[in-house]
Specification:
single chain; alpha/beta; Mannitol-specific EII, Chain A; 6-stranded mixed β-sheet; 5 helices; about 20% strand
Length: about 150
Amino acid sequence: MGAIGSRLSPEYIVVPAQVQGKEEVLKLLVRALAAGGITSDPDLLLKDLEARERLSSTALGYGCAVPHAHSAAMKSTVFAAARVSPPLSYDTPDGDPVSLFFLMAGPKTDTGLHLKLLSKLARLLHDPQMREDLNRAETPEAFHRIISEKDA
């Protein structure tokens, strides 16, 4: 299993997620990590993610966004994900709404790994077939399998 698939558990994937805005997506994904005991301080993690979002949009285009942050609330770098239905308006480079969200959070000491994983995920999400497959995934397990197979 690749670096992304091994850092994303089906228990941290919400499909489909019905939310009203990007703040709700962030809260949903932070709650998923908190429920799994992955973050020591969900409120701090949420504040760190919101602060990063204020710097610039984390939307990649193609209906994808990767909100991410370094946080003292994290001991290791992990992902959470959601497929949002209907897609949300977001500050995207192509103007398209976002349906696929990948939250990435890790400790401040993982800067190099953080950048490597962001780059790898962006490359994977550039594949239209993968995006289509993820948007069709009906379960967290199916969503995870798609990521893991492409990240092998």
